[in-house]
Write a structure and sequence with these properties.
Blueprint: E1 12-17, H1 20-46, E2 58-66, E3 85-90, H2 98-112, E4 116-124, H3 143-152, H4 164-167, E5 177-179, H5 185-199, E6 209-213, H6 216-230, H7 236-242, E7 247-250, E8 254-257, E9 286-290, E10 297-301, H8 306-316, E11 323-332, E12 342-351, H9 369-383, E13 394-402, H10 413-422, E14 424-428, H11 431-441, E15 445-453, H12 463-491, H13 493-496
Parallel strand pairs: 3-5, 6-10, 6-11, 11-15, 12-13, 13-14
Antiparallel strand pairs: 1-4, 2-3, 2-4, 7-8, 7-9, 9-10, 11-14, 12-15
């Protein structure tokens, strides 16, 4: 049914689709129409026009009705619903999630052989979220018009933006609809805007493989590698390797295109002039070595502490990455460890506390074999050591994550006793948080740390010692992380997304 361009589409069913591409196209038509309507009304409002009443448009929805059990392919951990019933979700940014939605829709159609229903939901789109690239909505308004803004436009409503689905605490509504996705559209939009704020890069630039670090040294080396990957080379093998990545993206829109690509496929180096960029870094700057298929590598400097680790993973999770790995430094707790040794975490002591309300501490956070193997293989290849010789520089064991950086200044007999009982071999402030949020959000995770101090044995992290350590180990550690991500990509997504991260009452989307 055609609608006038200046009117929003009313809530209701738009069509039933047995083709994934057609379903995605309809979702996109609905979303673009609704958001264009809101932007047009807001432009009129900021221009001084008087509105007759509240302006409202709604997110698109996708749902399917499953009447009976079916012979589904459960080798993947996603792509099917758990049983008969009505399953649905609201959707946002189909432009950003095009490839993702096509895969999810295709799997559902193949597994259940029932049409997907696409329509307009009753979930209102907040005016802030109608501007995907961000907008200082209040900036151009007079005090009077700013005061009246909530009378005309929907604003973000945190009472409808939560993590009950991923936490497994959602309640069945009166319509009996179960969640098809882990995040609702408002929750996704909330995080997409927060990502811009915290990282100064666009959600579109984030890649499916994400490295986290807590030291600028790693960022400096990643920048050097990323820029060099874009440099033209005459070496055939190196050129072929570099051609898999098309851009290197830095905060504030600094983009370097790959000079090894043909002019028709190369991404432009559209970096703004240096004097147009803010002379500061955001709270958690992100850098992206991008691929056309989105399976490149992003690195985020999360800074120090579990709060930052939770914050950034809360938001990156809506992008549905294939894996994230923590590369950081830790305190070695064993006398036999040396500065520069690696720690491959196979268990975690969660003393960070920031996730206690979302993921109870009695929930085990297991090591994922696929990620563990990739990290160990990467260490072997980069260091040239394997088998028994590898034990001379790397230990596998439990990592304890705490929320008090200066725990040594208290009476530390009690925490040391707990570390001893848990068999912990390393201590940090982020790894368990990132792993636990990976478990909570169904994102494969891993941790490879490097021992930078041994506080229980008199080897403290002091400037002279630290500077020497960083120069010796950072480059190698980052190379290991990059190689591990490439190995995970080569091994394929079918094996990476483990069923051990999915519950028995699970949303269908990856």
């Amino acid at each position: 049914m055609p609608f006038p361009a200046d009117a929003p589409l009313p809530p209701g069913l738009r069509g039933r689709y047995t083709d994934a591409d057609a379903a995605v196209q309809e979702v996109r038509r609905v979303w673009e129409h609704q958001t264009a309507y809101l932007r047009g009304c807001f432009a009129a409002y900021t221009g001084g026009a008087d509105l007759d009443g509240p302006v409202r448009a709604h997110y698109p929805f996708v749902r399917l009705q499953v009447e009976r059990g079916a012979a589904i392919d459960t080798r993947l951990s996603y792509g099917f619903v758990e049983g008969p019933g009505l399953w649905g979700t609201t959707v946002t940014r189909p432009d950003l999630f095009d490839r993702y939605l096509r895969e999810q829709f295709s799997l559902l159609l193949r597994n259940h052989d029932v049409p997907l229903e696409v329509g307009v939901s009753d979930e209102a789109i907040p005016i802030h979220f109608a501007f995907p690239d961000g907008l200082y909505v209040e900036g151009g308004l007079s005090a009077d018009r700013l005061h009246r803004l909530p009378h005309f436009f929907d604003l973000p409503d945190l009472s409808r933006t939560d993590d009950t689905i991923v936490n497994g605490t959602w309640s069945l509504g009166p319509d009996g609809e179960r969640p098809l996705a882990l995040f609702t559209a408002p929750r996704v939009d909330f995080s997409l805007h927060r990502l811009r704020h915290y990282t100064a890069t666009a959600p579109e630039d984030f890649q499916n493989f994400v490295l986290f670090t807590n030291y600028q040294f790693y960022v400096d080396e990643f920048i050097r590698i990323g820029r060099s990957m874009m440099d033209e080379t005459a070496d055939p093998a190196l050129r072929a390797y570099r051609r898999q990545y098309d851009r290197f993206v830095e905060p504030w829109g600094v983009v370097t295109g790959n000079r090894n690509l043909d002019a028709a496929t190369a991404s432009p180096a559209d970096a703004p002039p240096a004097d147009a960029l803010p002379h500061r870094l955001p709270q958690m700057p992100a850098y992206h070595l991008t691929r056309p298929d989105g399976n490149g590598i992003s690195l985020v400097n999360i800074g120090v502490g579990p709060s930052n680790a939770k914050t950034i993973t809360d938001h990156i999770a809506v992008l549905r990455p294939h894996a994230w790995i923590m590369l950081g430094h830790c305190a070695g707790l064993r006398h036999t460890q040396r500065l520069g040794d690696y720690v491959l975490a196979h268990g975690y002591v969660r003393d960070d506390h920031v996730l206690d309300a979302d993921l109870p501490i009695w929930v085990p956070v297991p090591a994922l074999a696929e990620v563990q193997r990739a990290l160990e293989t990467a260490v072997e290849r980069v260091t040239g050591l394997s088998g028994y010789a590898l034990k001379s520089i790397m230990r596998t064991g439990t990592v304890a994550t705490i929320d008090n950086r200066n725990w040594e200044l208290r009476d530390h007999r009690e925490p040391v006793e707990r570390f001893n009982q848990s068999r912990a071999i390393a201590l940090d402030m982020e790894s368990a948080t990132i792993a636990a949020n990976g478990f909570r959000f169904r994102v494969p995770y891993g941790t490879l740390l490097c021992v930078s101090d041994k506080p229980l044995h008199g080897e403290l992290k002091l400037p002279g010692m630290a500077d020497h350590f960083y120069r010796e180990r950072v480059d190698q550690h980052l190379q290991i992380g990059l190689l591990a991500m490439e190995l995970l990509r080569e091994n394929g997504m079918e094996t990476l997304h483990s069923r051990k991260l999915r519950s028995f009452a699970e949303a269908a989307f990856q």
